[in-house]
């Protein structure tokens, strides 16, 4: 009886080589399934198989070439790397004849180990080989000594002691008898092969069963029942076979399915009939691990910008521009051929902010800027900004920008805002105080006035008010109507909205009241000072000025 592998230490996960060795050496019957690329390998692992057969037939077929070493060994290894990267179970490569002599075998083993491939099976035929089921009896066998040298060379070059070399006997395929198969098996076993694979093209299992009996467990035994597939598995178990290879069933399943779908779509010129027959696109994404990338993007990419949602408040008509807003809201007024909202959206997109929600009200149906999601505040005539914001609440993202839709600003303001630290950051123009402005400005009172000689001052917002002079003191500038909220800040905002919604005056509240409420609650709102370079469009004069800021 062959030696049983060292006991499993369940506390430590075995590496792939050790897993394969265990599959071969453990006395119970195990199964490995063919795969031929990354996605099929993943599917095999998900189905619960403990190992993968990287079939030469299937790998060459997926490249669209013959199983005659037409694909180079490096092309095989390249595909194996994809398969290995996406799986945690061992891969046994069908290494044909080892792609050359002992020297090629040494290099193959080295390259396989580098890609975390757990073992290789080599067959005693000549390079370039032909698939065993094509004119098998006309195929010449390798010289025994030469083949033993190849096994030894492979074993001597492995660095992981559990890397496995399986020696595959083609004697029965090539029309030799059991005694030739035994003679060779003995020699390959003595040369150091970890297991013997006895191959047969017979439609009955008699040949392999006779071999198994004669072999008597001198080393682990592997079979490929492609031709004698109707044999009950219990027969293999009884014969003390260690490993069964289901050698080509993933590529055959894929081919059958692809042929049926292609024929149907060609004939019917529609997708209606096949949509339910194919895997949903979502399933492809899942198998590719798309969710992991979304998570990783949050952690590593663009300081979380991909994760930032812009909420644009655009429900109002724009009273001071009544003549121009008969049939569209202010945000759809064209400036140099593009609606204001479009200019805003372009700025977001430039900075990789692609999740843009517009809260519309007046003439909401006319808002059609690509790349935006429009939701409607139906009560826009009788409610204020917070009511509009609350309409978007159920679709709030993790991090947000909240701003008025009639804002125009130079891109650097958004860029600096995204970089500015703080759970909530308000943009305050420190020179706007000195200018006459249209509309009804929101004055910002801050912990420190803007120091023109400093960049990145740590400043807190204290209050936002409609008057330039309050009990808090002289205002430090004008809040431009733009807030940035990181994850925690966004949660504070949601909580504040929920609280304020309980108040009778909620419908008249705007963003300044929300900021003041948050400050009262002890939440810190940081200030990013800017000096001009922005505008909110309230009048025709503003539209003229806006044209200059368009870019
Ligand atoms: C393969 O899967 O490529 C094999 C097994 O070598 S068989 O095609 O059955 O010979
Ligand atoms: Mg093969």
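Q: What amino acid sequence fits the structure above?
A:
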């Amino acid at each position: 009886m062959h030696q049983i592998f060292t006991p499993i230490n369940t506390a430590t996960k075995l590496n792939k080589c050790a897993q394969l060795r265990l599959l071969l050496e453990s006395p119970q019957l195990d199964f490995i399934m063919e795969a031929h690329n990354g996605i099929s390998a993943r599917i095999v692992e998900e189905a619960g198989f403990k190992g993968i057969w990287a079939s030469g037939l299937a790998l060459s077929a997926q490249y669209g070439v013959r199983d005659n070493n037409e694909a180079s060994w490096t092309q095989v290894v390249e595909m194996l790397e994809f398969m290995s990267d996406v799986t945690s179970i061992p891969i046994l490569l069908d290494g044909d004849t080892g792609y050359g002599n002992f020297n090629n075998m040494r290099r193959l083993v080295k390259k396989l180990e580098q890609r975390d491939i757990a073992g290789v099976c080599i067959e005693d035929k000549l390079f370039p080989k032909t698939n065993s089921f094509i004119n098998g009896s006309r195929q010449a066998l390798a010289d025994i000594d030469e083949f033993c040298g190849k096994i030894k060379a492979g074993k001597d070059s492995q660095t992981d002691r559990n890397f496995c070399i399986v020696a595959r006997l083609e004697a029965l395929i090539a029309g030799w008898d059991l005694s030739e198969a035994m003679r060779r098996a003995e020699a390959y076993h003595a040369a150091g092969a970890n297991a013997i694979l006895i191959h047969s093209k017979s439609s009955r299992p008699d040949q392999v069963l006779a071999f198994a009996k004669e072999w008597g467990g001198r080393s682990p035994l592997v079979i490929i029942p492609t031709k004698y597939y109707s044999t009950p598995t219990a027969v293999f178990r009884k014969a003390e076979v260690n490993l069964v290879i289901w050698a080509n069933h993933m590529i055959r399943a894929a081919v059958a399915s692809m042929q049926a779908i292609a024929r149907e779509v060609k004939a019917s010129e529609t997708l209606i009939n096949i949509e339910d027959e194919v895997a949903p696109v979502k399933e492809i994404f899942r198998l590719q691990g798309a969710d992991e990338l979304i998570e990783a993007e949050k952690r590593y990419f663009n300081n979380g910008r991909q994760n930032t949602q812009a909420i644009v408040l655009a429900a109002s008509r724009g009273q001071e521009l009544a003549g121009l807003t008969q049939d569209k809201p202010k945000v759809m007024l064209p400036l140099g051929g593009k609606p204001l909202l479009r200019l805003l959206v372009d700025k977001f997109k430039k900075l990789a902010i692609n999740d843009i929600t517009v809260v519309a009200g007046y003439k909401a149906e006319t808002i059609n800027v690509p790349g935006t999601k429009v939701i409607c505040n139906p009560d826009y005539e009788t409610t204020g900004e917070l009511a509009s914001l609350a309409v978007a609440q159920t679709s709030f993202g993790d991090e947000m920008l909240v701003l008025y839709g009639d804002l125009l600003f130079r891109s650097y303001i958004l860029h600096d805002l995204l970089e500015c630290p703080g759970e909530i950051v308000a943009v305050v123009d420190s020179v706007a105080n000195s200018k006459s402005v249209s509309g009804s400005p929101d004055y910002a009172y801050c912990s420190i006035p803007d120091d023109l000689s400093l960049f990145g001052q740590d400043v807190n917002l204290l209050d936002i008010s409609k008057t330039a002079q309050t009990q808090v003191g002289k205002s430090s500038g004008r809040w431009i109507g733009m807030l940035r909220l990181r994850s925690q800040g966004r949660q504070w905002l949601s909580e504040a909205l929920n609280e304020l919604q309980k108040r009778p005056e909620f419908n008249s509240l705007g963003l300044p009241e929300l900021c003041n409420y948050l400050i009262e609650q002890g939440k810190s709102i940081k200030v990013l000072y800017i000096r001009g370079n922005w505008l909110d469009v309230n009048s025709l004069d503003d539209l003229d000025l806006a044209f200059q800021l368009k870019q």
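Q: And what stands out in the fold?
A: Residues 328 and 366 are 6 Å apart (CA to CA).
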